[in-house]
Write a structure and sequence with these properties.
Layout lengths: L1 E6 L2 H15 L3 E6 L6 H11 L14 E5 L4 E6 L9 H4 L1 H4 L4 E6 L13 E7 L5 E7 L1
Parallel strand pairs: 2-5, 2-6, 4-5
Antiparallel strand pairs: 1-7, 3-4, 6-7
């Protein structure tokens, strides 16, 4: 199952979080790919907002992991951009995060290739020809 959506503005990208929540709200692993500045963290912010989270949502680029304990589900947001090798995931305790009981949103999953399990969902974000973003969502 695959679907393509358009997000013309940052607000549209945030609103996609609400559209995606029924699919992702049960947990699982989601791989988010796309070049720098495509809106991956903005989409994560939209998903968290749709879940009722009102606090600050920042990119976990330097800390690698940001976790959000929500009443209905724990969400782990990982940004693997700074990894030099997938083996570094072992130091993060990735096995404990991906326990089937949380929603794990992973930016730059290609940096963990060979060390990450297959995702439940993949989301790829790219430039739209006429501006904005094209968001491709696939259930694996």
């Amino acid at each position: 199952m695959s679907e393509t959506l358009l997000a013309a503005t940052e607000g549209d990208m945030l609103a996609l979080g609400e559209v995606l929540l029924p699919r992702l709200g049960q947990g699982g692993q989601v791989h988010l790919s796309g070049d720098l500045g495509m809106g991956k963290t903005t989409l994560v912010r939209g998903i968290l907002r749709a879940m009722g989270y009102t606090g600050r949502v920042k990119s976990p680029s330097y800390g690698l992991v940001e976790s959000y304990e929500l009443p209905e589900l724990t969400v782990h947001h990982l940004d693997l951009y700074r990894l030099s090798h997938g083996e570094e995931l072992a130091f993060l305790g990735i096995e404990e995060l991906i326990d089937g009981q949380a929603l794990v949103l992973i930016e730059w999953p290609e940096k963990g290739k060979g060390f990450l399990a297959s995702p439940d969902w993949t989301i790829h974000i790219d430039d739209a020809p006429d501006g904005g973003r094209v968001v491709e969502i696939a259930k694996n």
